[in-house]
Amino acid sequence: MKREPRICIAGMGAIGSLLAASLSSRSANLSLVARGETLRTLQQNGLTCRKGGQVATFRVSADVRAPDEIQDVILLAGKAHHLPDLVQMIQHAVGPQTCVIPVVNGAPWWLLPQLGIGSKAVASVNSILDPENRLSALPLTSIVGCVAYAFARVEKPGEVSVEGPSRFVIGDAVGGTNTHARTVMGWLGEKDALFQISSDMKTEVWNKLSLNVATNFLSVLCETTLQELVTDAAIRPLVTQCLSEILMLGQACSIEGLFPVTRSMEIIGAGGTHATSMLQDFRAGRPLELAALGDVITALGRHKGVSLPTIETLLGLTRYASTRRNTTHTKGTLHVH
């Protein structure tokens, strides 16, 4: 009798919660890693998912760390700046055959050696993403790259709202054979096309990165939706310029098959009234993914000699807005007390 795969999802934000709700109905030994109020809610009440007018609650197994047994698949579903801590919570459950899938925005650490920037430059850029080399401790051959196209938000701890169809594109980080990715597909199932395989994850990652870089900073600065970013006459030129800059950088990194600017604009507009994950974090007072979506990109630009004036300006303004918001909130709290 074929055993159920052991699958662990570490990080229960919007994407982790969406994945957990999607995989809860499959034949798998599923465990979740969470903390704080989210962990307490999952343990006591389960995970609630709202989608298409329907509400479903799933009983789940959740703890502060992965189970004490080797897992078949581990999905790292936190923000890029959460990954080093998440790795510490799951590293004991990683075996020689474990497939580790980081589901994050931005340029992932495993992609850097493939961008033709030299080993010293790779180490320099990687220090932004992985300052203590925790991620680099994971064997690259076990990494399955992932790009997420999903519209979800956490309503409150343990509750997620899914606002449209979701798609996760996966492929081996190195090697090009997709041996691990096909194994993952066999375990997770293909019945609803939630997961799809790509033979060129470098291109997949950069195309999604382009969309994120062109929208996330502006969504915070303008506090507006994806659709308005491409339809507002004052904002649209900035989105276009960001897309042009990140396209030039991708081409300088010898990445083929990149979306033309017009195609990227169409995809962004199709996002409708969805608020980007960075805008959701900004409104909630959470840290923003400025390193993976901004600092890494500008560092790559310097190493490749590609000028990114619009991206650098918007990154700086977004960092200022985030710092000012946090400072204002702290001052307000001190004044009240």
UniProtKB/TrEMBL annotation:
Pathway(s) per entry: Cofactor biosynthesis; (R)-pantothenate biosynthesis; (R)-pantoate from 3-methyl-2-oxobutanoate: step 2/2
Domain Ketopantoate reductase N-terminal, residue spans: 7-173
GO molecular function annotations of the record: 2-dehydropantoate 2-reductase activity
EC number(s) on file: 1.1.1.169
Keyword Oxidoreductase included in the entry's annotation: yes
Keywords of this entry: NADP, Oxidoreductase, Pantothenate biosynthesis, Signal
Primary enzyme class: oxidoreductase
Catalysed reactions, semicolon-separated: (R)-pantoate + NADP(+) = 2-dehydropantoate + NADPH + H(+)
UniProt entry tagged with the keyword Cell division: no
The Ketopantoate reductase C-terminal domain, residue ranges: 200-319
Task performed by this protein: Catalyzes the NADPH-dependent reduction of ketopantoate into pantoic acid.
Protein name, entry field: 2-dehydropantoate 2-reductase
Organism listed in the record: Acetobacter conturbans
